[in-house]
Write a structure and sequence with these properties.
The chain is mainly α. The protein is built from 14 helices and no strands.
Length: about 400
Amino acid sequence: MMDRRAVAVTAFAFTVAMIGTTIPTALYPIYSDRLGFSSLTVTVLFGVYACGVFGALLMFGRLSDQIGRRPVLMAALVFAVLSAAVFLIPPSLASLIVGRLLSGVSAGLMTGAGTAAIIDLYPVARRASAGVLAVAANSGGLGLGNLFGGVVADLSSSPLVVPFAIHLALALVAMVGLRLFGVDDRRRGGFVFRIERLAVPREIRGAFARGTLSAGAGFASSGVLTATTGLFLVRYLGIASHTAIGAIVCLIFTCVALGQLLTKRVPPRWAMPGACGVLVLSAGLLAWALAGEILIPLIAAAIAVGLGCGVCMNVGLSTTVERVPASLRGGVSSAFFAVIYVMLAFPAVGVGLLAIPLGLREAGLVFAGVVALLAAAVGAADLRASARSHP
Protein backbone atom coordinates (compact mmCIF):
# COMPACT_ATOMS: atom_id res chain seq x y z
CA MET A 1 0.00 0.00 0.00
CA MET A 2 1.34 3.43 -0.95
CA ASP A 3 2.45 5.65 1.95
CA ARG A 4 0.74 8.94 1.09
CA ARG A 5 2.52 10.91 3.80
CA ALA A 6 5.90 9.79 2.49
CA VAL A 7 4.87 10.76 -1.05
CA ALA A 8 3.70 14.18 0.17
CA VAL A 9 6.84 15.06 2.15
CA THR A 10 9.12 13.76 -0.61
CA ALA A 11 7.33 15.84 -3.25
CA PHE A 12 7.38 18.87 -0.91
CA ALA A 13 11.13 18.49 -0.31
CA PHE A 14 11.70 18.14 -4.06
CA THR A 15 9.66 21.28 -4.76
CA VAL A 16 11.35 23.34 -2.04
CA ALA A 17 14.83 22.44 -3.26
CA MET A 18 13.95 23.46 -6.81
CA ILE A 19 12.33 26.74 -5.65
CA GLY A 20 15.71 27.82 -4.30
CA THR A 21 17.40 27.29 -7.64
CA THR A 22 15.32 29.90 -9.49
CA ILE A 23 14.64 32.59 -6.88
CA PRO A 24 17.63 34.65 -8.17
CA THR A 25 16.34 34.74 -11.77
CA ALA A 26 13.93 37.65 -11.27
CA LEU A 27 16.49 39.39 -9.07
CA TYR A 28 19.31 39.51 -11.62
CA PRO A 29 18.35 43.01 -12.87
CA ILE A 30 18.77 44.27 -9.28
CA TYR A 31 22.13 42.55 -8.92
CA SER A 32 23.10 43.91 -12.34
CA ASP A 33 22.33 47.49 -11.30
CA ARG A 34 24.05 47.25 -7.91
CA LEU A 35 27.13 45.34 -9.00
CA GLY A 36 27.45 46.50 -12.60
CA PHE A 37 26.86 43.13 -14.26
CA SER A 38 26.94 42.67 -18.01
CA SER A 39 24.63 40.27 -19.82
CA LEU A 40 27.60 37.84 -19.97
CA THR A 41 27.90 37.84 -16.17
CA VAL A 42 24.23 37.01 -15.76
CA THR A 43 24.37 34.12 -18.21
CA VAL A 44 27.60 32.82 -16.65
CA LEU A 45 25.73 32.60 -13.34
CA PHE A 46 23.22 30.33 -15.11
CA GLY A 47 26.16 28.28 -16.32
CA VAL A 48 27.72 28.04 -12.85
CA TYR A 49 24.44 26.67 -11.52
CA ALA A 50 24.24 24.09 -14.31
CA CYS A 51 27.84 23.05 -13.64
CA GLY A 52 26.92 22.46 -9.99
CA VAL A 53 24.00 20.30 -11.07
CA PHE A 54 26.08 18.31 -13.54
CA GLY A 55 28.95 17.84 -11.09
CA ALA A 56 26.61 16.50 -8.41
CA LEU A 57 24.94 14.15 -10.86
CA LEU A 58 28.30 12.96 -12.17
CA MET A 59 29.89 12.34 -8.76
CA PHE A 60 26.85 11.31 -6.74
CA GLY A 61 24.37 10.11 -9.36
CA ARG A 62 24.21 6.56 -7.94
CA LEU A 63 24.54 7.57 -4.31
CA SER A 64 20.84 7.04 -3.53
CA ASP A 65 21.04 3.55 -5.08
CA GLN A 66 23.89 2.75 -2.68
CA ILE A 67 22.94 4.35 0.65
CA GLY A 68 19.20 5.05 0.24
CA ARG A 69 17.03 7.84 -1.09
CA ARG A 70 16.27 9.72 2.13
CA PRO A 71 19.88 10.44 3.16
CA VAL A 72 20.53 11.98 -0.27
CA LEU A 73 17.32 14.03 -0.12
CA MET A 74 18.43 15.36 3.27
CA ALA A 75 21.86 16.22 1.87
CA ALA A 76 20.22 18.11 -1.01
CA LEU A 77 18.25 20.20 1.50
CA VAL A 78 21.42 20.91 3.50
CA PHE A 79 22.99 22.37 0.36
CA ALA A 80 19.80 24.37 -0.25
CA VAL A 81 20.11 25.85 3.25
CA LEU A 82 23.78 26.68 2.67
CA SER A 83 22.95 28.34 -0.65
CA ALA A 84 20.22 30.48 0.95
CA ALA A 85 22.61 31.46 3.73
CA VAL A 86 25.23 32.62 1.22
CA PHE A 87 22.63 34.74 -0.60
CA LEU A 88 21.72 36.39 2.72
CA ILE A 89 25.16 37.98 3.09
CA PRO A 90 25.90 41.30 1.32
CA PRO A 91 26.11 40.44 -2.38
CA SER A 92 29.25 40.31 -4.45
CA LEU A 93 30.11 38.45 -7.63
CA ALA A 94 32.05 35.88 -5.61
CA SER A 95 29.16 35.24 -3.20
CA LEU A 96 26.70 34.89 -6.08
CA ILE A 97 28.94 32.33 -7.78
CA VAL A 98 29.28 30.33 -4.54
CA GLY A 99 25.54 30.56 -3.88
CA ARG A 100 24.65 29.41 -7.38
CA LEU A 101 27.17 26.57 -7.22
CA LEU A 102 25.74 25.33 -3.91
CA SER A 103 22.24 25.65 -5.36
CA GLY A 104 23.31 23.57 -8.35
CA VAL A 105 24.69 20.82 -6.10
CA SER A 106 21.39 20.83 -4.19
CA ALA A 107 19.43 20.50 -7.43
CA GLY A 108 21.73 17.75 -8.72
CA LEU A 109 21.34 15.65 -5.59
CA MET A 110 17.58 16.25 -5.41
CA THR A 111 16.80 15.78 -9.09
CA GLY A 112 18.18 12.26 -9.41
CA ALA A 113 17.29 10.98 -5.95
CA GLY A 114 13.94 12.78 -5.74
CA THR A 115 12.72 11.41 -9.06
CA ALA A 116 13.79 7.89 -8.13
CA ALA A 117 12.29 8.21 -4.62
CA ILE A 118 8.86 9.26 -5.87
CA ILE A 119 8.79 6.45 -8.44
CA ASP A 120 9.84 3.96 -5.73
CA LEU A 121 6.91 5.02 -3.54
CA TYR A 122 4.28 4.20 -6.17
CA PRO A 123 3.09 0.69 -7.03
CA VAL A 124 4.10 -0.61 -10.45
CA ALA A 125 0.60 -0.12 -11.86
CA ARG A 126 0.77 3.61 -11.09
CA ARG A 127 4.31 4.35 -12.25
CA ALA A 128 2.99 6.75 -14.91
CA SER A 129 1.41 8.88 -12.17
CA ALA A 130 4.70 8.80 -10.26
CA GLY A 131 6.55 10.20 -13.27
CA VAL A 132 3.99 12.98 -13.61
CA LEU A 133 4.35 13.92 -9.93
CA ALA A 134 8.16 13.87 -10.11
CA VAL A 135 8.24 16.21 -13.09
CA ALA A 136 5.51 18.39 -11.53
CA ALA A 137 7.54 18.76 -8.32
CA ASN A 138 10.64 19.57 -10.35
CA SER A 139 9.08 22.02 -12.79
CA GLY A 140 6.62 23.39 -10.23
CA GLY A 141 9.46 24.31 -7.91
CA LEU A 142 11.40 25.94 -10.73
CA GLY A 143 8.36 27.98 -11.72
CA LEU A 144 7.37 28.99 -8.19
CA GLY A 145 10.92 30.14 -7.44
CA ASN A 146 10.86 32.55 -10.36
CA LEU A 147 7.45 33.98 -9.47
CA PHE A 148 8.16 34.13 -5.75
CA GLY A 149 11.45 35.98 -6.26
CA GLY A 150 9.78 38.52 -8.55
CA VAL A 151 6.75 39.19 -6.34
CA VAL A 152 8.83 39.64 -3.20
CA ALA A 153 11.26 41.89 -5.08
CA ASP A 154 8.38 44.23 -5.96
CA LEU A 155 6.70 44.16 -2.55
CA SER A 156 9.60 44.06 -0.12
CA SER A 157 12.03 46.78 0.86
CA SER A 158 14.71 44.07 1.15
CA PRO A 159 14.29 42.13 -2.12
CA LEU A 160 17.71 40.50 -1.87
CA VAL A 161 17.14 39.22 1.66
CA VAL A 162 13.49 38.28 2.25
CA PRO A 163 13.11 35.61 -0.51
CA PHE A 164 16.17 33.69 0.66
CA ALA A 165 15.22 33.92 4.34
CA ILE A 166 11.81 32.42 3.56
CA HIS A 167 13.37 29.71 1.41
CA LEU A 168 15.83 28.80 4.15
CA ALA A 169 12.89 28.34 6.54
CA LEU A 170 11.01 26.19 4.01
CA ALA A 171 14.06 23.98 3.52
CA LEU A 172 14.30 23.41 7.27
CA VAL A 173 10.59 22.48 7.40
CA ALA A 174 11.15 20.03 4.54
CA MET A 175 14.03 18.42 6.44
CA VAL A 176 11.83 17.95 9.51
CA GLY A 177 9.07 16.47 7.32
CA LEU A 178 11.43 13.95 5.73
CA ARG A 179 12.80 13.03 9.13
CA LEU A 180 9.34 12.40 10.60
CA PHE A 181 7.38 10.98 7.66
CA GLY A 182 9.84 10.06 4.91
CA VAL A 183 10.63 6.43 4.22
CA ASP A 184 13.73 5.34 6.13
CA ASP A 185 15.43 3.39 3.36
CA ARG A 186 19.02 3.57 4.54
CA ARG A 187 21.05 0.77 3.03
CA ARG A 188 24.03 -1.05 4.39
CA GLY A 189 26.11 -0.74 1.27
CA GLY A 190 28.69 2.02 1.63
CA PHE A 191 29.36 4.71 -0.92
CA VAL A 192 32.50 4.32 -2.97
CA PHE A 193 33.55 7.79 -4.09
CA ARG A 194 34.52 7.95 -7.72
CA ILE A 195 33.59 9.86 -10.82
CA GLU A 196 30.70 7.87 -12.20
CA ARG A 197 30.39 6.95 -15.83
CA LEU A 198 26.77 7.75 -16.50
CA ALA A 199 25.91 4.26 -17.70
CA VAL A 200 22.55 3.43 -19.23
CA PRO A 201 21.34 -0.17 -19.76
CA ARG A 202 21.73 -1.24 -23.37
CA GLU A 203 18.06 -2.04 -23.88
CA ILE A 204 16.92 1.56 -23.27
CA ARG A 205 19.77 3.48 -24.90
CA GLY A 206 17.85 4.44 -28.03
CA ALA A 207 14.89 5.69 -26.00
CA PHE A 208 17.30 7.39 -23.60
CA ALA A 209 19.03 9.29 -26.40
CA ARG A 210 15.77 10.49 -27.93
CA GLY A 211 14.23 11.32 -24.55
CA THR A 212 17.17 13.31 -23.24
CA LEU A 213 17.79 15.16 -26.50
CA SER A 214 14.13 16.14 -26.90
CA ALA A 215 13.73 17.21 -23.26
CA GLY A 216 17.16 18.83 -23.50
CA ALA A 217 16.00 20.84 -26.50
CA GLY A 218 13.15 22.10 -24.31
CA PHE A 219 15.53 22.95 -21.48
CA ALA A 220 17.86 24.64 -23.97
CA SER A 221 14.94 26.78 -25.15
CA SER A 222 14.06 27.62 -21.55
CA GLY A 223 17.73 28.43 -20.94
CA VAL A 224 17.70 30.96 -23.77
CA LEU A 225 14.44 32.43 -22.48
CA THR A 226 15.53 32.68 -18.85
CA ALA A 227 18.94 34.07 -19.79
CA THR A 228 17.46 36.83 -21.96
CA THR A 229 14.01 37.61 -20.55
CA GLY A 230 15.01 39.80 -17.60
CA LEU A 231 17.44 42.03 -19.44
CA PHE A 232 15.30 42.00 -22.61
CA LEU A 233 12.23 43.26 -20.75
CA VAL A 234 14.18 45.97 -18.95
CA ARG A 235 16.44 47.17 -21.77
CA TYR A 236 14.26 46.77 -24.85
CA LEU A 237 10.66 46.85 -23.62
CA GLY A 238 11.06 49.20 -20.66
CA ILE A 239 9.33 46.76 -18.28
CA ALA A 240 11.00 47.05 -14.88
CA SER A 241 8.55 44.85 -12.94
CA HIS A 242 10.35 41.93 -11.31
CA THR A 243 7.01 40.17 -10.99
CA ALA A 244 6.62 40.29 -14.76
CA ILE A 245 10.07 38.79 -15.24
CA GLY A 246 9.37 36.03 -12.74
CA ALA A 247 5.90 35.39 -14.13
CA ILE A 248 7.09 34.83 -17.70
CA VAL A 249 9.72 32.32 -16.62
CA CYS A 250 7.23 30.75 -14.18
CA LEU A 251 4.87 30.31 -17.13
CA ILE A 252 7.42 28.03 -18.80
CA PHE A 253 7.55 25.61 -15.89
CA THR A 254 3.82 25.78 -15.21
CA CYS A 255 3.28 24.67 -18.79
CA VAL A 256 5.84 21.89 -18.30
CA ALA A 257 3.49 20.51 -15.65
CA LEU A 258 0.49 20.98 -17.96
CA GLY A 259 2.40 19.15 -20.69
CA GLN A 260 2.35 16.07 -18.42
CA LEU A 261 -1.44 16.02 -18.61
CA LEU A 262 -1.43 16.49 -22.38
CA THR A 263 0.76 13.43 -22.84
CA LYS A 264 -2.10 11.11 -21.84
CA ARG A 265 -4.28 12.56 -24.62
CA VAL A 266 -1.75 12.11 -27.40
CA PRO A 267 -1.11 8.74 -29.11
CA PRO A 268 2.29 7.49 -27.85
CA ARG A 269 3.69 7.28 -31.38
CA TRP A 270 3.06 10.99 -31.97
CA ALA A 271 3.77 12.42 -28.50
CA MET A 272 7.48 13.15 -28.88
CA PRO A 273 7.45 14.19 -32.58
CA GLY A 274 4.50 16.48 -31.88
CA ALA A 275 6.23 17.99 -28.85
CA CYS A 276 9.39 18.57 -30.87
CA GLY A 277 7.27 20.37 -33.46
CA VAL A 278 5.94 22.62 -30.68
CA LEU A 279 9.53 23.35 -29.61
CA VAL A 280 10.37 24.39 -33.18
CA LEU A 281 7.34 26.70 -33.08
CA SER A 282 8.51 28.14 -29.75
CA ALA A 283 11.90 28.98 -31.24
CA GLY A 284 10.17 30.85 -34.04
CA LEU A 285 8.03 32.77 -31.57
CA LEU A 286 11.09 33.69 -29.52
CA ALA A 287 12.87 34.90 -32.65
CA TRP A 288 9.84 37.02 -33.52
CA ALA A 289 9.77 38.53 -30.03
CA LEU A 290 13.48 39.35 -30.02
CA ALA A 291 13.61 40.71 -33.56
CA GLY A 292 10.46 42.80 -33.25
CA GLU A 293 10.83 43.76 -29.58
CA ILE A 294 7.29 42.49 -28.90
CA LEU A 295 5.98 41.07 -25.62
CA ILE A 296 3.11 38.84 -26.83
CA PRO A 297 5.19 36.36 -28.87
CA LEU A 298 7.63 36.14 -25.94
CA ILE A 299 4.75 34.99 -23.70
CA ALA A 300 3.55 32.59 -26.42
CA ALA A 301 7.09 31.21 -26.72
CA ALA A 302 7.18 30.56 -22.97
CA ILE A 303 3.90 28.61 -23.19
CA ALA A 304 5.05 26.58 -26.19
CA VAL A 305 8.44 25.79 -24.63
CA GLY A 306 6.79 24.56 -21.45
CA LEU A 307 4.19 22.37 -23.16
CA GLY A 308 6.70 20.81 -25.55
CA CYS A 309 9.28 20.24 -22.83
CA GLY A 310 6.68 18.72 -20.48
CA VAL A 311 5.57 16.15 -23.03
CA CYS A 312 9.16 15.28 -23.95
CA MET A 313 10.15 14.83 -20.30
CA ASN A 314 7.13 12.63 -19.62
CA VAL A 315 7.86 10.39 -22.59
CA GLY A 316 11.57 10.32 -21.77
CA LEU A 317 11.06 9.30 -18.14
CA SER A 318 8.39 6.71 -18.98
CA THR A 319 10.65 5.00 -21.52
CA THR A 320 13.83 5.09 -19.39
CA VAL A 321 13.75 5.66 -15.61
CA GLU A 322 10.40 3.93 -15.08
CA ARG A 323 11.51 0.80 -16.96
CA VAL A 324 14.69 -0.08 -15.06
CA PRO A 325 15.00 -1.97 -11.75
CA ALA A 326 15.02 0.06 -8.52
CA SER A 327 18.72 -0.74 -8.03
CA LEU A 328 19.55 1.19 -11.22
CA ARG A 329 16.86 3.87 -11.04
CA GLY A 330 18.89 6.56 -9.25
CA GLY A 331 21.77 6.23 -11.70
CA VAL A 332 19.58 6.31 -14.81
CA SER A 333 17.58 9.23 -13.43
CA SER A 334 20.80 11.13 -12.74
CA ALA A 335 22.13 10.39 -16.21
CA PHE A 336 18.85 11.61 -17.74
CA PHE A 337 19.00 14.94 -15.94
CA ALA A 338 22.76 15.34 -16.38
CA VAL A 339 22.31 15.45 -20.16
CA ILE A 340 19.40 17.87 -19.82
CA TYR A 341 21.28 20.28 -17.57
CA VAL A 342 24.30 20.33 -19.86
CA MET A 343 21.93 21.35 -22.63
CA LEU A 344 20.48 24.03 -20.34
CA ALA A 345 23.91 25.50 -19.59
CA PHE A 346 25.26 25.62 -23.13
CA PRO A 347 22.79 28.12 -24.62
CA ALA A 348 22.56 30.14 -21.41
CA VAL A 349 26.31 30.80 -21.44
CA GLY A 350 26.46 30.94 -25.24
CA VAL A 351 23.93 33.77 -25.38
CA GLY A 352 26.07 35.79 -22.99
CA LEU A 353 29.24 35.16 -25.00
CA LEU A 354 27.62 36.01 -28.33
CA ALA A 355 25.98 39.08 -26.83
CA ILE A 356 29.38 40.76 -26.56
CA PRO A 357 30.06 41.00 -30.32
CA LEU A 358 26.47 40.71 -31.58
CA GLY A 359 24.15 42.09 -28.90
CA LEU A 360 21.61 40.36 -26.67
CA ARG A 361 18.80 40.09 -29.23
CA GLU A 362 21.02 38.81 -32.01
CA ALA A 363 22.61 36.20 -29.74
CA GLY A 364 19.18 34.99 -28.70
CA LEU A 365 18.18 34.69 -32.36
CA VAL A 366 21.20 32.52 -33.14
CA PHE A 367 20.50 30.08 -30.34
CA ALA A 368 16.77 30.01 -31.07
CA GLY A 369 17.71 28.76 -34.55
CA VAL A 370 20.09 26.12 -33.17
CA VAL A 371 17.43 24.81 -30.76
CA ALA A 372 14.85 24.66 -33.56
CA LEU A 373 17.17 22.53 -35.70
CA LEU A 374 17.91 20.19 -32.79
CA ALA A 375 14.21 19.72 -31.94
CA ALA A 376 13.36 19.04 -35.59
CA ALA A 377 16.15 16.44 -35.87
CA VAL A 378 15.06 14.61 -32.69
CA GLY A 379 11.41 14.59 -33.77
CA ALA A 380 12.37 13.12 -37.14
CA ALA A 381 14.55 10.47 -35.45
CA ASP A 382 11.70 9.44 -33.16
CA LEU A 383 9.34 9.12 -36.13
CA ARG A 384 11.83 6.81 -37.85
CA ALA A 385 12.23 4.72 -34.70
CA SER A 386 8.45 4.39 -34.34
CA ALA A 387 8.13 3.38 -37.99
CA ARG A 388 10.70 0.61 -37.48
CA SER A 389 9.02 -0.74 -34.35
CA HIS A 390 5.49 -0.43 -35.80
CA PRO A 391 5.85 -1.25 -39.50
